[in-house]
Amino acid sequence: MGLLRLVLGDQLSHDIAALEGIDPGRDVVLMAEVMGECTYVPHHKQKLVLVLSAMRHFAEELRARGIPVDYIRLDDPDNTGTLSGELARAVARHRPAGIVATFPGEWRVLEAMRGWEEVLGLPVDIREDVRFLCPLPRFRRWAQGRRQLRMEFFYREMRREAGLLMDPDGPVGGQWNYDAENRRRLEPGTMPPPPRRFPPDPVTQGVMDLVAARFPGNFGTLDAFAWPVTAAEAEAVLADFIAHRLSRFGDYQDAMAAGEPILFHALVSTSLNLGLLSPRACCEAAEAAFRAGRAPLNAVEGFIRQILGWREYVRGLYWLKMPDYARLNALEANRPLPWSWWGGETRMNCLKQVVRQTRDLAYAHHIQRLMVTGNFALLAGLDPAQVNEWYMAVYADAFEWVELPNTHGMAIHADGGIIASKPYAASGAYINRMSDYCRLCAYDVKAATGPEACPMNALYWDFIARHERRFSANPRMAMPLQTLRKMAPEKRDALRAQAAAFLAGPEMRPEA
């Protein structure tokens, strides 16, 4: 009697811990598509297709290696709709001596796993997820006793341990972080090379038909689906990025441009988060390009920082602070999500560009998420639970361990400063500096009041005024607070009235 080895939809790696030491003659791998995982948030249609297609491809790869796979499809007539229910049915079918699983990516799944031994009457071995570069016990040791858990200091330790971009006497180039060199606006006439994309094969097309039939009302379109769904395709995407876009990624990673959703970004986050790509392999490929003179240091360091630094950091923080972290609402925000975020009309071109792009591609790069939708949510005081659900629902790479800290902490400051030492609040001037969105907008980015004034401007000063007392002890907020306090009372009142009128207006109508 062998073991039942569970592989989840974001654990599609042949070296996943649950498969270590597998005996194909005695053990069975269980993979299950269940409605509960498809509906706990209203996922973008492309995210559903991506995960389900990648699961089906991975199951076939296991079978090709001689590994027995018990695969439950979403449309199987006896599907219970829950992971726990399918596990119980598999136990009844196979009578295993025990269950082996890999540590999951979401708190709610771990809570279910912790109850399986008692319910099923079998030992359940939940193994550490070795795909990450920083094991969770290692992160807890780093965090212990620290008053502030800043990513930059964690990142430096990870660089030393991994040996990436290191010389014998310290970091290559003499400094750890080149973020200041990564903020160029896209110059007119700059033509980003098209990314490597993959048209749906028969397996993916079958999943697309299933999703279109089962989830017709979900956000998003399937027309442009071209995500990698196998490790081979994911590796091709990485190679294409290294060859054609990495060299300019550093300069333009914060840039935004209408009609240019990808720019010089890597498009590897979906593959990393599903397990189709190794984070170390991504970092080593970028470092090799730098060592060979094919990419500059600011580009390679920025790319490695996002993976070795930020990605590992937010995972560690998520598991350190959950489940209470998800309930934090430090700024007491409670405004409903506006309908424009689900495709409703808005005159704000920046929001229009990002929401439409998200609808069509299930993708927006980090600055679009942080400084357009995230900044707007922060300034408008949108409810953190609704904002987090939206980010989880609409992006193909969103899994809670990575989405929640990025949104809750970095974008909307709902954690009160656990992640970011100040809120990432900005007026329309930031968006105008980093994009061409404002040039095509119905609003005037240079105006703060009046019928055509950019809403971001008044919302920014209303946000600062609303939280003046809260931010008074934060040295990084001293400059905007000083500017606010120097304002003539009539100007301050006019800005707050402008913000109030917008927040009460048609563009802020909640979802119907």
TrEMBL record:
SUPFAM superfamilies: Cryptochrome/photolyase FAD-binding domain. It comes from uncultured Craurococcus sp. Keywords: Lyase. Transmembrane segments: none annotated. One of its GO terms (molecular function) is lyase activity. This is Deoxyribodipyrimidine photolyase. It comes from the Bacteria.
